Amino acid sequence: MPATLPFAAFTALVTFLVSFPIMGLKLVKEGTQLTLQSGTPGAWTFIGLAVLTVFLFQLFRPQIAGATAGLRSRLPAMPSVMPEDEAQKARIERVILWVLIGVALIFPFASSRGAVDLATLVLIYVMLGLGLNIVVGLAGLLDLGYVAFYAVGAYSYALLNEYFGLSFWAALPIGGLLAATFGFILGFPVLRLRGDYLAIVTLGFGEIIRILLNNWTSVTGGPNGIGGIPKPTLPAIQTDPELAVVGLEFGRRAKEAGNVPFHEYFGIAYNSSYKVMFLYIIALLLVLATVYVINRLMRMPVGRAWEALREDEIACRSLGLNRTAIKLSAFTIGASFAGFAGCFFAARQGFISPESFTFIESAIILAIVVLGGMGSQLGVILAAVLMTILPEVAREFAEYRMLMFGLVMVVMMIWRPEGLIPMKRPKLELAQ
Amino acid sequence: MLAFDPFYFAQQLLNGLTIGSTYALIAIGYTMVYGIIGMINFAHGEIYMIGMYSAFVAITGMAAFGIEFLPVIFVGALLFAMLISSTVGWAVERVAYRPLRGGNRLIPLISAIGMSIFLQNYVRLFQGSSDVAIPHLLSGGYTFGAADGFQTTLSYMQILIFVTTIVSMGALTLFIAKSRMGRACRAVAEDLKMANLLGIDTNRVISFTFVIGAALAAVAGVLLGMYYGVTNPYIGFIAGLKAFTAAVLGGIGSLPGAMLGGIILGITEAMTSAYFATEYKDVVAFGLLVLILLFRPTGILGKPEVEKI
Questions:
Q1: How far away is chain A from the Cα of B84, in angstroms, using its nearest Cα?
Q2: Exposure of A324 by Cβ count < 10 A (0-12 exposed, 13-18 middle, 19+ buried)?
Q3: Domain formed by A86-236+269-415, architecture
Q4: What is the ipTM of this complex?
Q5: Residue of A143, A362, A410 for testing the chain B interface, max B β-carbons within 10 Å
Q6: How close B264 gets to chain A, by Cα (Å)?
Q7: What pLDDT digit, counting tens, does each position of B46-60 carry?
């Protein structure tokens, strides 16, 4: 009898106990009565297989570990994709970034309307991911209520438009500023707390914002949300003062006084895909601006301080860095990007409700940052693309989407906590 | 605003105590795990939810076999739910937390969030996302107050909740204070490395705290399942958040703190619902959490944490 038998039997029992009440049995409503029915044969087969797999794996674990270790030592070392030289690495990353920008620019003219629409959604998530990356990846502050700032941005455009008639371009900076203010107000008292407390407080804050939006019916429309939010317009260049065109709209007819439809202004035929393309281009510009600003920030003293604080708080304090100010700056700047993204989201959807700003949205954005590699911009962009496109491609597995999503988060933490493309920082080492 | 009615107030106090004592039961799981390995077990709310589902499975299963004697149903559901929940608790620790021990603090927390999402969707996938309801097993109660005014009701179910909570808490306190395993728990909470050096199997102790926490969450699941009679896969998230608030309120790491925090939170919520607005009871609960963290980060009964270098 192998020594692993008792533990293997125990884990098999655990697997059975974890799976049978939920998978093997089903509570079914029959009229007013609740009855207990057996699960599908498929579910029982699955339970049997799972129990057997766990049992065998634990039973032969030493042998399996030995075999894989042997295999690993016999295989040649994996050739690294990236060259060792730091300067060369940076150059390659820059080339990849430029290629990505090029592809993104050509993309709307070479693909279908649906694809462009999806790409716009990807860009929103890229922006949210990059914004949260400042807070979580660079400054190392776990923010589980990031969606609250996104909601602030979205609602500020929707409300400013509804009550004061502000256009998208006027509301965009205000939305970002308001989100930043919220970040500042929340961050100021809370950032003194240790990491995991901060996570829970931000989570609670996210819930508070959602509950307020849901219940303040007289202003926000409650669960019914706000509809009829106008799409962004293209500010027209004033060539003829008599005409006084304010902006160009992308619908068939202009909805607001002073605006002219885009196709009439340029005298071309109406095409419904212009609207989608225009939204895509705005999103792309916003993302490019975000990438640029964050890239600059990372090289500024404040950016260096974020990372230093993440690595060793005590050392930073002993070197005289003001930790509250540094954390607060990361929190506020991160929040402002969510505000911009929220503004754009409201404009794109034309309709917003508290439904769009639940905790799960925060978790998705966090997963993007974690999957991509905390701190790494290229990684975050890649992860945002993956996380938005995969569920669209695998529609028949939509049922399992969130299940897989949770599992991926756990597996990533165990297998590769530094993410798909880990962040690399220039470093110097003294030769011995 | 109506005139102050002492019977109405007493009713709210009773309701608050009922909910508060179940929060306290769930909060024990957070506080014990935090006290020992310093991590927030984000999936704990889902373990409570699985406990409630297991109780529903046991109760409907026993009804199918024609068992109608209430104490048998109650004890049966309690044992079954505790068995299932503590198994899940053990498995979660083994799979998602143990491989990550000793690294950056954020990594196990993110893993726990993933686990929470996984468990919630696991239940949703196989049991459906709609509410399931069981009939009330225990109805009736004592009524106080004038026949023409507001009458305070202390239901038998509420009495059952109080008694079960007090018995479980008492048993746990006694166990931690007197037993060998309890002493090991306290030693590990004091200093994990030193306990390890002195020959305590710390891995076993950590597994054990997850099992105990999960079992108490299951007790709360059975009680609230019988009290409300309704459940769905999403109840774990908000309940977990509330229980965590209770744990922080009382002082995380402290057992009496968790009980005190749970009861304060329950009463605050009941009073907010009764005298202000039901929709804002969660806002008040989280607002309380923020205030406590600001003015007394260690909670009411917590000890100040010393930063070790």
A1: 6
A2: exposed
A3: Orthogonal Bundle (1.10)
A4: 0.85
A5: A410
A6: 18
A7: 999 999 999 999 999
